[in-house]
Amino acid sequence: MFGWSRRQLFTGLVGVLGIGGLVSFALAYFIPSPPSDISIATGFKGGSAEFMGQRYKEILARSGVNVSVLLTDGSGEDLKLLKDLQSGVKVAVIQGGVSNSKEISGLLSLGRVNYQIFWVFYCGTDTVDDLVQLRGKRIAVGPDGSGTRTVAAKILGVSGVTSETATLSPLAGDKAVAAMNDGSLDVMFLANTDSAPLYKSMLRDPRYRVMNMRRAEALTRIFPFLVRVVLPQGVIDLERNIPATDVTTIATTNAILVRDDIHPAIVNVLTAALVEEHSEAGLLHRFGEFPMSSDPEFTMAEAALDFYKNGPSWLHRYLPLWATTHVQRALALLLTAVAIGLPLLNYGPKLYLWFVQVYVNNLYRRLRVVEAGLQTELTPPQVVAFQSDMENIERSASILPMRHSDLFFCCGTTLIAHARTSPRV
Prior knowledge:
Oligomer: single chain
Number of domains: 3
Structural class: alpha/beta
CATH topology of the largest domain: D-Maltodextrin-Binding Protein, domain 2
CATH architecture of the largest domain: 3-Layer(aba) Sandwich
Order of helices and strands: HEHEHEEEHEHEHEHEEHHHHHH
Number of strands: 10
Largest sheet: 10 strands, mixed
Strand content: 15-25%
């Protein structure tokens, strides 16, 4: 309409493409695509955390996320891997009581998912119902760096059972059981979930006795990450009445920790996996008790809290994970366009009128050049040139809609008429 040249059109096209590229870059930066591969640190092989990691792997595979289950020496090493930016680990199963947000920053919790129960098994006929009775004993507390050893050291320490008053062995699991069988250990400090088979088999074995902690409640007051739990009489084997009495012990809860730079979409699918895997009832907890939407030691992730409160978002409920990011970017672009476009609707007519005025003013400048030339003695070629200029100006003026004629008709027509009737040859 305004007689733009090819150069101007090309410049405008380059500008539009440049703006489009910047918008795409901004959207990719502020709404990045979720990774398709993540690593979860789960502790040693055969532990309950490894089983949990394998279940998460199966569930997240349905969302197109490939999970690598990384075996470690326990929660201590898991925390180190989470803190290490170069490790590639952004998710870990961490036993409660190992650390907290005050000691380690940059980590968020997706909630507590199950009980990590501490059983104290011992051999002999004497009844042991208090941790102070373990002084002088040979006790298996798990390997250095494991969550079991870290928590056991805290619990035993307040009862005066330390490396100075007892022999603390790094054995755990089947190796600790074998050591108790051959007489080289007196006590086994066992940490298991309520679905683990080891403690159930030891409860069935008449060679072992389990401590019924009479001061378990006191320990939960000293250590807020602990809870008092009761294994009901006969729940393992009702026919044989195993255990023969209610067994009171202590437990902590396992947390799923993530780095605070993890993609929110991964938090959503992980939290959904936690609900699917851990919401059923168990021997020591009721239906819906897990996963917990709170954490006594670590700050909860906002995306996880939102999931527990409102469930999955509409996008994550109906779209695959890879598609949600593209839809989010499209929605962000649409909202931005609306936010910018609505005010422009008010200024659009004014901007258009400004362009028209600039265009007309340019025609007037060209007319003044012609008028100034007509005030001199002209040769025939110059007259022809000025006439050609006048025709070009007329054509340029004719493309303007008539509703804008008030901007140029009077002055322009008068000037053109004057120019045509007064050439000096």
